[in-house]
Structure to design on (175 residues):
């Protein structure tokens, strides 16, 4: 089952990315991505916090030591979904989607798939210059959750997770 789960409100949705301090620090200061972030590369956004934790190893992997929560407009997110193609389709589309097994606190695969959205070209420019509302550093929270997971205190770890719920968009399930 494909399902977008996210922290969102009427106007915005939170997506996650992990970067090196060299990219994260300037982005946090500017509240948008600035050099050395490169608009020429595809940037992957993930609305699932736990999938991001799986990808960055709870902020322990090289060049992924900083976990950022980027609040973007729902209008932008919905535009990306509506303009997305599967990562299996050849060519150079502006928006790619990939559905991977969602992950639990111990990185175990869950029974539904979580979306990752790759942005390049116009989509990346819109993400950086129009859609981004704020950027928050969640690195310490990620590390605290990881400490609880390693101590096998999953209730404490679960209590620190962002409040994600199913995100409804008719085009998302078809992407």
């Amino acid at each position: 089952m494909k399902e977008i789960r996210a922290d969102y409100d009427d106007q915005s949705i939170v997506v996650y990315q992990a970067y090196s301090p060299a990219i994260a620090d300037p982005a946090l200061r500017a509240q948008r991505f600035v050099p050395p972030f490169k608009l020429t590369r595809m940037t992957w956004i993930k609305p699932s916090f736990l999938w991001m934790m799986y990808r960055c190893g709870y902020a322990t992997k090289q060049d992924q030591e900083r976990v950022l929560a980027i609040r973007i407009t729902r209008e932008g997110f919905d535009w990306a979904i509506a303009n997305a193609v599967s990562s299996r389709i050849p060519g150079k589309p502006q928006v790619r989607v990939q559905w991977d097994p969602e992950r639990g606190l111990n990185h175990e695969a869950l029974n539904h798939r979580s979306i990752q959205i790759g942005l390049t070209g116009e989509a990346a420019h819109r993400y950086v210059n129009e859609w981004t509302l704020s950027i928050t550093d969640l690195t310490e929270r990620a590390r605290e959750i990881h400490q609880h997971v390693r101590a096998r205190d999953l209730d404490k770890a679960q209590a620190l997770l962002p409040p994600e719920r199913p995100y409804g968009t008719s085009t998302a399930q078809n992407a």
Notes: The chain has a mean pLDDT of 93. Residues 92 and 143 are 36 Å apart (CA to CA).
